[in-house]
Design brief:
The protein is an alpha+beta fold. The chain is 51% helix and 23% strand. It has two domains: 2-140, Beta-Lactamase; 212-368, Histidine kinase-like ATPase, C-terminal domain (Heat Shock Protein 90). The chain has helices at 2-43, 48-54, 56-61, 112-174, 180-207, 220-230, 247-264, 319-329, and strands at residues 64-73, 76-83, 88-96, 99-107, 215-219, 234-238, 242-246, 274-282, 285-292, 333-338, 344-351, 353-354. Helix 4 (112-174) runs antiparallel to helix 5, helix 5 (180-207) packs across helix 6 (220-230) and helix 7 (247-264) packs antiparallel against helix 8 (319-329).
């Protein structure tokens, strides 16, 4: 009895094997086509219009009859088609923000596994289109956010320049007779620093945020003294270090910190606020502390680096946030604390190359 059904068992097994082999071949073919679509998308750098124009070649190899599409790309309509626009239609519409695409794919009417494999390939194609559009939306958001951040930094610098012009005009207009020389001495000290800031704004507006931040030699004591004069602060500086440091980073950080001491402090009897500064080497970096008791005791420390928070109604609340961001981008640190004596202290850890006095005339511009 068993011997009689052997041929049937062999036939059934052979049929199952042949079907499995056929399905494996079809699945392998569709897998290769899916991979071809993915690689094609990568070659076109995930650009939706370019991918749409190039996708017909692998889709046609899958047996699709044709494709037509209409793309609304940030308000500009673009259309395209390839192959024969006949057969069973598969229509999809994808919309992501200011981008939209309507795709119609044409295929022969098929049943069973061929229909399933074609549907799988079509869904892969549509998923790649949606992914490309999401990538574009994310890149656009990141670029706009960077531009907004850069715009805020520029507003901060331009506000400082405008305040300097207002201050200069007021003092020139109201200077008592015989004090003109004092005003001119202040202008001689402050004008070069304001010019540097104006040059930085112009460079940024022309070329965007610089990728390379050139190093230049600094004598920190002299730099801090100049900035204190600019913001009408008296300073007591202990220690000095000569170093190569990122130009835009160091200028902005020191300027923002000292300007805030000037804004925080309320001079009494015409006296300028006093800031104690400590400068010391610490391996391959320099530690700088700024400390003053002439600051309000109710300033919340947790707010000082918060963007858009300011203790002044005229402040943008961006200066200290900008300083902290710039330092951290260069591997440095900026912190703040309230000392036991009530003084507000900022502490900087600034990476940089320490140089000796004989090399302070070095004019090269290596990049940090």
């Amino acid at each position: 009895m068993i011997e009689q059904i052997y041929p049937y068992l062999i036939l059934i097994g052979s049929t199952i094997g042949a079907v499995m082999f056929y399905l494996w071949r079809q699945a392998r073919r569709v897998s290769k086509l899916n991979l071809a679509l993915i690689r094609l998308n990568e070659q076109h750098q995930f650009d939706t219009p370019a991918f749409l124009r190039a996708a017909w070649e692998p889709l046609s190899r899958a047996g699709l009859q044709g494709i037509s599409w209409r793309l609304d790309w940030f308000g500009i309509p673009v259309e395209g088609q390839a192959g024969q626009l006949k057969g069973e239609e598969v229509f999809r519409e994808i919309r992501v923000r200011e981008m939209a695409v309507a795709v119609t794919l044409f295929q022969k009417k098929r049943q069973g596994e061929r229909h399933y494999f074609n549907e799988s390939l079509i869904e892969t194609f549509l998923l790649l289109l949606r992914t490309d559009m999401l990538i574009k939306a994310g890149a656009t958001d990141a670029s706009l956010a960077q531009m907004a951040k850069l715009n805020l930094f520029l507003q901060h610098d331009m506000k400082n320049i405008a305040q300097f012009i207002q201050f200069t005009a007021d003092h020139l207009q109201g200077a008592p007779e015989g004090s003109e020389q004092q005003v001119l001495n202040y202008l001689r000290t402050a004008t070069p620093l304001i010019r540097e800031r104006a040059d930085r704004i112009v460079r940024t507006l022309k070329g965007g945020q610089p990728q390379n931040n050139p190093l230049r030699p600094y004598r920190l004591q002299d730099e801090i003294e100049h900035l204190c004069d600019l913001h009408r602060l008296d300073c007591d500086i202990q220690g000095t270090v000569d170093m190569l440091a990122p130009e835009h980073t160091l200028d902005s950080v020191l300027d923002n910190i000292l300007k805030n001491y000037g804004d925080f402090s309320q001079p009494e009897y015409g006296l300028r606020p006093l800031v104690h500064v400590g400068i010391s080497e610490n391996g391959n970096s320099v530690d700088i502390t700024f400390e003053s008791q002439q600051t309000p005791s109710d300033i919340p420390l947790e707010r000082l680096f918060e963007p858009f928070w300011s203790s002044s109604p005229d402040g943008l609340g961006i200066g200290l946030y900008q300083a902290k961001q710039l330092l951290e981008m260069r591997g440095g640190k900026l912190g703040v604390q309230r000392k036991d004596n009530g003084a507000l202290q900022f502490r900087i850890a600034l990476p940089g190359k320490i140089i000796n006095e004989g090399h302070m005339q070095h004019k090269g511009t290596p990049t940090f």
